[in-house]
Every structure is written in C-alpha cells, then in structure tokens.
Amino acid sequence: MLGRLVSDLQVGDDLPEVEYVASPFMIREYCHGVEETSERFVGAPDSGQLAMPTLVHIDKLRVLEQACPGGSGPVARLHYEYDAVYHRQIEAGARLRVSAQIEARSERGGRERLVIAFELRDAATGTLHTTYRDTTLLSYRPRG
Fold first, then answer.
1. Residue ranges of the chain with per-residue pLDDT less than 50
2. I need a labelling partner for 66 at 20 to 30 A (CA). Which of 14, 59, 112, 134 fits?
C-alpha cells in the first residue's frame, strides 16, 4: 500500500503489481456491461474467446484499489483520457500481471492531473499485451 488515497500519489511511485486470470466469465460480464455482442469476445462454442482491448480499464481499478484503499481523495476523481496500445491479443484463461507507475502530476487551468502508465503482461512469460497511459483529473475548480 502506497497511500491511503489516490490523491496522495506522487511522480515515481510504483504501484503494487496485480495478478489475475482473464476468465471467460469475467470477459463475458465486461462485454455485457459495455454492450459488446461479438462472439469473438462473448464467446461461442469451439470458437475461442478473446478479452476486449478496453478491459485494461478494469486493471486500472484493480491496481488503484490495492495501492489506495481509502479511495479517490477529498473529491471524486474523473477519468479524463487514455492512450492504449494493444501489442498482443489476450485469450480467455490467460494469467496476467499488471504493473503501474505514476508518470506525471500537474495542474493546468485549475485542474489537477495525474498520469499513470500501466503495462499488462503475461504472468508466466512476461510477454507484453497492452501499454496504457491514463490521465485522471483529481480536482476541478470552476473558473469565475
């Protein structure tokens, strides 16, 4: 555990790694939540099943929950933008490891921003599946 709150995180902080299995059920439930209906992701008999690329958002929540059990901070955080690069498909049943580091923290126009860089790898081989750079607004003070 690094800090009690997400708003406590500072540049250079390495967040705790999280390992999990991308189970068929988890992938299917995620698909239902985002209204994805492709058999490629929800699964079909004898066709295999892949994790949706945007499943990386769930990894962000897993890591932050481990690192900051107190939650966001004095105000709710807002997912602002992300950049993700998908290097390799993830098959259902894969054991994965996600790591993250605080890359930047700044304030512009009354908005405090926190940038977190994530890597999603195969837990056994270290093969890179996804790189993900997330920008979150920690606070917002309206102008005027």
1. 1
2. 112
Give the span between the Cα atoms of 111 and 102, in whole angstroms.
17
Asked whether 29 and 18 are in contact (CB, 8 A), the reply is no
Ordered alpha helix ranges (H), 20-136:
24-33, 39-42, 56-67
Q: What is the pLDDT of residues 89-123, one digit of tens each?
A: 999 999 999 999 999 999 887 788 999 999 999 99
pTM for the model stands at 0.85
Total domains present in the chain: 1
For 85, the domain range is: 6-140
Asked if residue 1 belongs to a domain, the reply is no
